[in-house]
Every structure is written in structure tokens, then in C-alpha cells.
Amino acid sequence: MKFLLRPGWLALTLLVFAFAASCFHILSPWQFSRNSEQSASNNALEASFTGNPQPLAQVLPNNAAPDSKTEWHVITVSGTYLPKGEVVARLRTVQGEAAFEVLTPFRTTNGVVMLIDRGFLKPDERSAVPPYAAPPTGVVNLVTRARQDETDPKHRTAFADPATADKLQSYVVSSQVVAQASKLDIRPGYFQLDTNQPGVLTALPLPQTDSGPYLSYALQWIAFGVMAILGWLYFTVRELKPGGALTQEPVHKRKSVAQILAEDDNSDQFHAPDPVHSSR
To answer: 188 Cβ partners below 8 Å, 6+ apart?
Structure first.
């Protein structure tokens, strides 16, 4: 078993068990957690189809941010739109097509400012934001769906330039980004309008309640880890048997037909009788 201590075998063993450990403790749990998040989101979405709308303070008290358990809950609010702080989210896709989303701050009757996603617009022939209707003025009653803020890995802020017709645009739908651009104190999360709500443009479609591939991915990573260990055990047992590739004792190879014939010829020449003596 001295081969187990050889550098090459130790490196292979380390690689195999490091891969298996990552499968069991990192990759598989990551997929399990994603499956749990997806299940929670699906449950919340399905519950919103049959649940009654509730006041904002009841679902998200103390300006709490929406999470996986409260996302998609249907919320009722009353207040006025603040179109001066409006931002358009760019580089969006809706059902596989390019789109913009219009984000408008909204001040409730009790003074809380929240971000309303009024829906989406399709780009015009120049891939720019087309003209769209302004939100209604005065106090309106809205039925919205709570959503979690998106995050931008690059932490880009909203911007306006001639290419955007001096209209503020952002790369994500985020209350923080709009709050920074509009100088308003906006509560965390944003709230999506359904069809037939005051100020809605084209309502965003609701996602399908599909569990996704995360559970199968998690099981696959477990299987890969098990296969790696079983493969290592197989080659270890094989090397313990005589004739293994790492065995120190040389293994006699089977002679070829040419080698056997050559040895026979040499043997015949060595044992051939002397012609002089044979004539006597």
C-alpha cells in the first residue's frame, strides 16, 4: 500500500475529495436553497391569487422590505403620484422582447413614499422610450403587488443625457436607485400594478409558478460527489491487486509470436550437430 503515499496518488486523492466536499457542502446546498426560495415565491404568488388585498402597514409594518414570504402579496394604498421623480428602467425584457419599465414615486395619505412600477413600454423604431401617458393627478386608490428590490452588481446610479432625452433611466428596478435620483425618502421595495389600476401602462405579466430545475441540480451534484468517491475507491482497489499500474514489482508481459519464433531459431542454432563429427 506504499503507492497511497506517492505524490501523484496523494494529489489525485486530494482533488477527488475536495470535489466531493464541494458537491456535498457548497454546490448541492446552494441549489437546495434556490429551490426553497423558488417554492416560497411560488407559494406567495399562488396565495395572492385568492387572498384579499391588505393595507400596506399590515403586510409590511415599520417600512419593512418585502422578502420571499411577503413578495407578491396584494396591498392597497391611497395617495398621489410624484411624476417629477419618475425613472425609466432600461434594458428590460418582457416575454422575450425588449422593454422599458416606468417607475414613479407615490406618496400615501399618511406620508410614506413608495415606488410604483406602472408597467412596461416597447421601444420605438429608434430603440428609445416612446411617449407614454402621465399618471393621474390627485388622490387615487391602488391595488399593488409587493416586490423585492433588484440589485445591480456594478452599483450604477440613474442617469440622464441626450441619448435618453434627458429622462432619468436606471439599470435596475430599485427603490434605492430612484430615491437617490429623485432626492426622495422612498421606503424599501417596489410595488407592481396590475391591469385596470390608475396610472398603469401595460401591466407586467405574472411569472409562471414553475419549481424550476434547482432540485434536480442539487441531486445531480450529490450524485457527482458520490461517483467521484466511488471512482477513487475502484482505482484504489485495482491498484492493491497484483498487476496494478503503480505496483513496484515488474509484471512479465506476454511474449509475441515473433519473439517466440526468434527464440526457437536461436535454440536450434545452438544445438545443431557438428558436420565433421556427424560424417564419421
So the answer is: 63, 64, 65, 66, 149, 175, 176
Which pLDDT tens digit goes with each residue over 19-30?
Answer: 999 999 999 999
Instruction: Report phi then psi at 273, rounded to 5.
Output: -75, 155
Helices 28-50 and 214-240 sit at what angle, rounded to 10 degrees? Answer: 160
- 228: which residues sit within 8 A by CB, 6+ positions away? 16, 19, 20, 23
Indicate the SS3 state at residue 26: helix
Residue 142 has pLDDT above 90, yes or no: yes
Torsion from C-alpha of 80, 85, 90, 92, nearest 10 degrees: -20
Output the CA torsion sign for 33, 35, 36, 38: positive
Q: How far is CA 12 from CA 19, 106, 160, in A?
A: 11, 61, 56
Q: Is the pTM higher than 0.70?
A: no
CB 175 within 8 A of CB 190: yes
